[in-house]
Amino acid sequence: MRSASLQERHIVGASVPRKEGWDKVTGASRYVDDVVLPGMLYGATVRSNVARGKIRKISFDSTVRWNDFVIVTAKDIPGKNCISLILDDQPCLASETVNHPEEPILLLAHTDRHKVQNAVDAVSIEYDPLPPVHTLEESERQSTIIWGADNTFKTFLVEKGDVDAVWKEAPLIVEGEYFTGAQEQLYIENNGVIAAFDPENGITVWGSLQCPYYVHKALMVLCGLPEEKVRVVQMETGGAFGGKEEYPSMIAGHAALLAIKSGRPVKIVYDRMEDMVATTKRHPSRTLHRTAVDKNGKILGGEIEFTIDGGAYATLSSVVLSRGTIHAGGPYYWPSVRIRTKALATNTPPHGAFRGFGAPQSLFAMERHMDRIAQAVGISPVEVRRRNFLKPGQTTTTQQVIREEIDLNHLLDRALELSDYARKKTRFAEENKAGMRKKGIGIAAFLHGAGFTGSGERYLNSLVGVEAGADGSVRVLVSSAEFGQGTNTVLCQIAAEALGLPYESVAIAQPDTTVVPNSGPTVASRTAMIVGKLVQAAAQGIKQTLTTAGLLGDACTPEDFRAACRKYIAARGELKAYARYEAPGDVHWDDEKYQGEAYAAFAWAVYVAEVTVDLTTYAVTVDDFVALQEVGKVLHPVLAKGQITGGVAQAIGFALYEKVVWQNGRMINNQMTNYIMPTSVDLPLIRVFFEELGNVHGAHGAKGIGELPMDGPAPAIVNAVEDAIGVRFHSIPLLPEDLFEGLRLESLEREATSSTRGTA
Amino acid sequence: MNPSAGTGAKCEVLFTVNGETKKVLAYPMERLLDVLRNELELTGTKEGCGEGECGSCSVLLDGMLVNSCLVPVGQAKGASIVTIEGLSSHASMHPVREAFLECGGAQCGICTPGMILAAVHLLEKKPEPTLADIREGLAGNLCRCTGYMQIFDAVAWAARRRVAQ
User: Quick one: fold of B3-85?
Assistant: First the structure.
């Protein structure tokens, strides 16, 4: 009944129904907290309440019947006490020292979920405090060393041309410093897992997660178990956005330890306050730009220093830093540039993956700085971008040659037209002369690389399977997870298209490490482009097998396919085909120099934001938003649009609403009541437009799409705020109190300037 | 989770859930959300924040849209409750589920049951809502995936379908 569009010839490019959609709209989908296993215990975590210190004493309130509880400490860990990821520096349970507030120290489990929560408060821990580090400045001063030899998780240096030669002759040097705050992913389903253990089969974990094989690896190390004795199953996952990339390894480890010790299944599901206070957030950042420009506003060269706060352990900071580094120069041509970047340690819970992964931070700086350059030169924000856009044949900051026929001027023109930019700009300037509500319009141009950086995809070495049954039904086997973005649907579309089958004939396996091969993590906008291409190849492999066996001709109907599958399976028992990632021959990357083809493809975009700044309430509202992007082939128009509107909404939150308030390294507004994400009445109409240029590396020419919309809205909005009131803001989030403070400082400055003039 | 909810003496609560009479033995301060999910195994109702901000636990209680995480079960005595599971019995009256599927109103799906109940509630009050009505009607339900645009499309689509019927 809902399949009118399925009759169309092409499945790819059509808005077919979401695979798991009906279960989601009827409430039938099973998320981890919807599952209860027989004999299951409920687990809870006792956490540190200091930022840094040595654990002196742990005591248990004598009024609690502790014999009824399972208690786990670091001493109970069968394998290595770490959350294995890149560096193994983060303990699963702190044993001697704690390095951030809310660090897990001890685990409890009980049959009654109320009792276990109450028991957490009945454990008290005494510490010998150590001096903590809470800011980037303290961390880089290195007077207190909290991590490694120098508080530094990772540094990168990107150099192109001779930037030192440009300063002397440069007609203009424009400097700016920009900041972005932490941001909570705020998926509506909190982190949660169930673990079960038996000596014969080992450990099984069902959870809300993005990357089954990350959890698989971490559990092998933590539990000291071989590959085949660890099983990870992804349940329906209620949003992730990067927040369930690395953290699930931690909570899965906790549940696994309790399950091993108790011999019973254990569920741990965080409530909202615990999830917000203890789990990862977007890295706060600081970016310094120093740019040499000619009189026409053309960039001659520049230096960019990008620094992110990684929190107490390394986790994914080096990779987030890498992406932030590569995107720091924006979609512009830099004849010469030096980009120095670093990820530093502080005593806060580790910051981690969040949609955009470093790029929203460094692109905020770049796109604010472009407006700054425009002012310094005396040209418009439009013109300064036009004069510096990358063109095909030119090279990026990492000296990647742009081979696509991308025309950023065309994107810009179209975005200006769609947003009625020129007319609005003139009209607002006129209308803003009176009244307390000022209107402004701002733009941001940007790019986002799809897939893992540089040689990353080569290391991942992803494997994808497709299997066919005797009835001609097809199942896609990938570890790529669905968490709202449309993985299930898009990968089934691609397989159906490759096999000439109706979309309904193709299903996707639940990600279960005993069933699906490792198609890599579900991150980095890589699923449609990289995994999609492999699904296409594996599906073609099925067809090839049947053709080679003489069961299928070149032109075949679904009926022919079904008959061929029946015969093949009757004779051989099983029909499966696999495809492994092969690096394109023309992609070269130098990890030492950080030079070369950083990404197989970039998506490109120009966004335009229209805002009202209310000088009575100091609130900024976004009145209109145009999101125009080139993402290669759009595989599913409804899902693609949903990715953009959702990303823009999160980015509006990043710019205007979502502020993590820190106190001694701990988030103190860890509730939805006082950490505010956009509601249905806060957002403008988000108008989404696609250009389709195609891309040789992705399935049907698709590029990545998921992270792109997170990059542009914040700078476009803050540029619009400046357009409205003529005051420069360098820092997000920009809440009413920040706007108030900025205006207060601005007026103080103005008074100081005029009084100096007066006395001179 | 409310730690104090599991204290005191359990009492018998009689109410109607999705058209069926149900009797549960529960602590009077236990959240309606937990009773629905744990006692009645109606897990379509989700917990997002536990403090009435996100609306994922929305149900209809005597026709009112409520956050079931804020309703002590004792207060639901004698009430008639509709959860997401209950919409299947009058699906023809509520093409909202089809609309969410058609328009991309559900992504990760965790806010979807609550969002759909909010939409049903809105359409019962205002069969032909304006965009402003839709925004207002859904303002108590947070969605982190969609940016709401396709949810607005879905509610408008459902309203048209419903009026046409």
Answer: Ubiquitin-like (UB roll) (3.10.20)
